[in-house]
Every structure is written in structure tokens, then in C-alpha cells.
Amino acid sequence: MYAIVEIAGQQFKVSKDLKVYVHRLANEEGTKVSFDKVYLLDDKGTITIGAPAIEGASVEAKVLQHLKGDKVIVFKKKRRKGYKKRNGHRQYLTQIVIEGISITGAKKAAVKKETVEVATEEVEAPKVKKAPKAKKEDTVE
User: Fold this and answer.
1) Reported pTM
2) Contact in structure between 76 and 88 (CB atoms under 8 Å)
């Protein structure tokens, strides 16, 4: 079973017992968090798609730790001008572990196969009247 859920503005494909690094959350370490914006659920082959989110579905997680990511170097240069700028930053992250995916109240969307009936009757095209030919007029020179 897996779900696609929005956490801190980004979408993640999560399943039970998966550890995920997300943008820094305001919750303290060791607390439980619930995310309600579940966009897709796959339960043993039965796929449920929300429009935009599935009502009643949620993903429960536990905050493991807050940390900083690897350093990202930003280097800018303009050739033949002597312009060089070196800058960098470390992103603030939160590590969470997914404890469960609940689908209470979610409507299971069954795959519906609708047959489209094609009209087999032949319809004649409407007849178009031809315009009369223009007559040559005698011109006096």
C-alpha cells in the first residue's frame, strides 16, 4: 500500500515504515504528525484518485529529528569581466518516518468501463447546389 501525499508544499510517494526528509516542520522531535492532503491511494491494486484530495484519507508520521542538509554551492561568473560570486547554503530539513496510511471514509473508486456505441447508420451528405456559370459579355472596343 502506498500513497501520494503533500508534505510541506512538496509531493511524496510514501508507504509504511518509510523514512523521508522533508522541509523543516514546526513540530518537536518525537511528536506525531498527520497529513490530510492525500492525492492518490493504492491499496493492493485498487487505486483511488482524489479530486484534488481524497476526503477522509490521511497519513500518520512521527518526527525523528531536525537537521541541516548538505551544503549547496552557488557560483556565478561572467566571462571576461572579472565577475565571480561564490555563495552557499544548507537547507533545514526534518526526518520523519511514516507510521500508517488510513482510508477511513474514503470512497473506493471502482474502475468503470463504459462502452461507447458508434452509430452504424450511414448518413447522406446534404446536396449542394451548383452556382450558375457567369456569362461572357460582349465588350465594344
Assistant:
1) 0.66
2) no
